[in-house]
């Protein structure tokens, strides 16, 4: 007899591993980086977390567009803090993907090559300062809706990153709403700007939750693995119900003629987003896709000498530090 | 994927080893900054706790990046950073025999000893 395991024996240990993983999920415990996990679980997480990280990084651009034109020093300081947070959120999430064995540089390359996606919402332009307020209110509001359940995601590092992110998103949403309240208390022209921004962002915000459940093939598996806790449509409904009273308090109209309270369901009925538009934007044909990637690519290329110089400096000053493993 | 795929790992982090595919070119790899794990003391009287990881060219840069990434809202009064590949970690499963020596020593716990109810302050 040789010293190696028979095929049956190794097969059985794979089954054992699968059972142990299943037990962790079923008990509502967290899966940690060095636990055995199915390849599909690992791949799904890397794809989802990387896509989320890319969204935070690309998400700096629509708002960064207004940094130099903020109407006051107060608004400028707030917007800078918010854009800096988005960078931080991207870094927490890239850090989580690395616990799964992903390589940071590889993920960046995939984003720049268009092989990995980011949220469709960031392919829309910010045309006026009211957009900054509406992004905080609706886009970050939708993000919070999506992300709060992810704080209980089965993968430990992802859940912990989401807890940090959710704490900071609250500031994002409130500064946006406060900005809009200020504009709504201003002139007719300012109120018109807010309404115009709401009209443009409402439907793209609803699309942030992803396609309808019956066309979302990954949802069932992701929920079985405890990566996702609610379906796209459940979260979309929750967001609409949360937002309607906020819109009333603000004094704006949500641009959906079908939006109406349904007494029986105890929820709002609402119209169907333009899923053809969603598909187009995801496919890279949205209003700003080309510009967003070009800007990200240029930032990466412009920073190449800095990354190289920092390594060279570290090796010169402290030979024991800064060496790549 | 087995445990040996990772060259280093802490509570949270794992540095990908040779077996993890990275399909970028050699020049890009040269410009990669190494991975550091970050530990933050939230306030005086508390332990440093692992909060995540980041890349930096050297130790000082890692500290500064850690400040910017993990303590933007007064979350810490002290930060430790350590190269991820300098961490030695135990293997993951709780069933691991590594922890077995403490499993059968119930007499190390105060509840192992029964003391009559009428004995105070114990």
Folded structure, characterized:
The complex is a heterodimer of chains A (325) and B (122). Chain A is an all-alpha fold and 325 residues long. Helices cover 65% and strands 2% of the residues of chain A. Chain A has 13 helices and two strands; from the N terminus they run H-H-H-H-H-H-H-H-H-H-E-E-H-H-H. Chain A has a two-stranded antiparallel ribbon with strand order 1-2. In chain A, helix 6 runs parallel beside helix 8 and helix 6 crosses helix 10 (232-250). The longest helix of chain A is centred in the middle third of the chain and has 29 residues, at 156-184. The radius of gyration of chain A is 22 Å and the shape is globular. Chain B is of the alpha+beta class and 122 residues long. Chain B has a domain at 29-90: Ubiquitin-like (UB roll). Chain B is 14% helix and 23% strand. Chain B has two helices and five strands, in the order ββαββαβ. Chain B has a three-stranded antiparallel β-sheet, covered by helices on one side. In chain B, strands 1-2 form a two-stranded antiparallel ribbon. The radius of gyration of chain B is 21 Å and the shape is elongated. The A-B interface holds A 20, 32-36, 39, 42, 81, 84-85, 88, 91-92, 95-96, 98-106, 109, 156-157, 160-161, 168, 304, 307-308, 310-311, 313-314, 317-318, 321-325 and B 1, 3, 5-7, 9, 11-16, 20-24, 28-35, 52-55, 57-59, 61, 68-69, 72-73, 85, 89, 91-93, 95.
Query: What structural class do you assign from the helix and strand content of chain A?
Result: mainly alpha
The number of E-state strands of chain B comes to 5
| Proportion in β-strands of chain B | 15-25%
Q: What is the fourth-level CATH superfamily of one domain in chain B? A: Phenylacetic acid degradation B
Q: Could you tell me the number of beta strands of chain A?
A: 2
Summed up, the helix count of chain B is 2
């Amino acid at each position: 007899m040789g010293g190696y395991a028979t095929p049956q024996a190794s097969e059985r240990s794979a089954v054992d591993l699968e059972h142990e993983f299943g037990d962790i999920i079923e008990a509502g415990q967290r899966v940690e980086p060095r636990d055995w996990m199915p390849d599909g679980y690992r791949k799904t997480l890397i794809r989802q977390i990387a896509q989320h990280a890319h969204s935070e990084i690309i998400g700096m651009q629509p708002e960064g567009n207004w940094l130099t034109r903020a109407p006051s020093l107060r608004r400028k300081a707030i917007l800078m803090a918010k854009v800096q947070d988005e960078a931080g959120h991207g870094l927490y999430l890239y850090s989580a993907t690395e616990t799964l064995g992903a390589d940071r540089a590889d993920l960046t390359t995939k984003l720049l090559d268009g092989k990995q996606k980011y949220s469709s919402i960031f392919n829309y332009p910010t045309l006026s300062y009211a957009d900054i307020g509406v992004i905080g209110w609706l886009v970050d509001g939708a993000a919070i809706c999506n992300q709060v359940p992810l704080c209980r995601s089965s993968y430990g590092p992802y859940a912990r990153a989401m807890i940090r992110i959710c704490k900071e998103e609250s500031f994002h949403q409130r500064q946006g709403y406060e900005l809009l309240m200020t504009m709504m208390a201003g002139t007719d022209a300012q109120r018109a700007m807010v309404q115009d921004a709401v009209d443009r962002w409402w439907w793209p915000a609803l699309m942030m939750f992803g396609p309808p459940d019956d066309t979302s093939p990954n949802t069932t598996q992701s929920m079985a693995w405890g990566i996702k806790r609610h379906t796209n449509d459940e979260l979309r409904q929750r967001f609409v119900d949360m937002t309607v009273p906020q819109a009333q308090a603000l004094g704006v109209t949500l641009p959906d003629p079908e939006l109406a309270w349904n007494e029986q369901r105890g929820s709002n009925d609402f119209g169907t987003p333009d899923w053809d538009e969603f598909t187009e934007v995801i496919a890279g044909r949205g209003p700003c896709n080309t510009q967003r990637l070009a800007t990200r690519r240029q930032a990466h290329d412009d920073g190449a000498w800095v990354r190289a110089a920092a390594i060279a400096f570290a090796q010169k000053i402290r030979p024991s530090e800064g060496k790549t493993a | 994927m087995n445990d040996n795929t990772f060259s280093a790992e802490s509570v949270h982090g794992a540095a990908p080893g040779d077996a993890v595919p990275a399909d970028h070119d050699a020049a890009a790899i040269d410009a990669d900054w190494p991975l550091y794990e970050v530990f933050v003391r939230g306030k005086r009287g508390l332990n440093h706790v692992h909060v995540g990881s980041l890349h930096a060219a050297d130790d000082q840069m890692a500290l500064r990046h850690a400040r910017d990434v993990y303590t933007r809202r007064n979350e810490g009064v002290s930060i430790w950073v350590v190269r991820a590949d300098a961490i030695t970690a135990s293997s993951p499963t709780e069933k691991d025999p590594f922890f077995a020596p403490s499993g059968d020593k119930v007499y190390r716990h105060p509840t192992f000893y029964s003391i009559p109810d009428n004995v105070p302050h114990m």
